[in-house]
Amino acid sequence: MKADERTYSEEVVHYGIPWSIAIEKTDDHLTILLHCHRSMSSEQKWSVTYQADSKIVLGSKRSAGAHWYTLSNRPENHYSCSSYPNFIKWGEMLKNYVKDGCLNVEVHVSSLKMEGIERKHCISKFKSAKDVRAAIPLDLSRIDRPLLEEMFKKNLTF
After folding, report:
1. Could you tell me which residue ranges the MATH domain spans (predicted)?
2. H or E element: which one contains 122?
């Protein structure tokens, strides 16, 4: 991969929002980017604050990090992409995490607060208690209380 060249994952829908992951070589490091593909030009203003737990994995080896982000189409915070720059040194990544030319990058997203986004739509997609648990961040004090209540009610149906 050349410097500043990006490789993208397929788009997936999580919390009713389309996302994709990208990686790029920045200087001598791997940068992991999380793209939100929700319309930035929508008339309805929206924002989502979330925790992104990023990691690269090869067998039992892991390199991980967590960050909090807010993405929004509001003028005060108009971002559709968050990044984890300098995630790992490029040479270390090649030596320890690339096998047969492949790198396994995972980004787990926990929504903490959503505004202007229909929540019931995404909660209705949960099929098990595991889906609900995966959506709850470690720090419950940072989650939107009405969202937590809806998730708790959904969990009782399983």
Report:
1. 1-109
2. helix 119-123
Query: Quick one: DSSP state of residue 101?
Result: T
Domains of the chain, each with CATH number or no CATH:
6-116 (2.60.210.10)
- Per residue in 16-40, pLDDT (tens digit) is 778 899 999 998 999 998 888 877 7
Provide φ and ψ at 94, rounded to 5°: -60, -40
Sheet containing 77-79: which strands, arranged edge to edge? 77-79, 61-74, 47-58, 104-115
User: Which H or E element spans position 23?
Assistant: strand 17-26
Q: Which two tokens stand for residue 29?
A: 């490091």
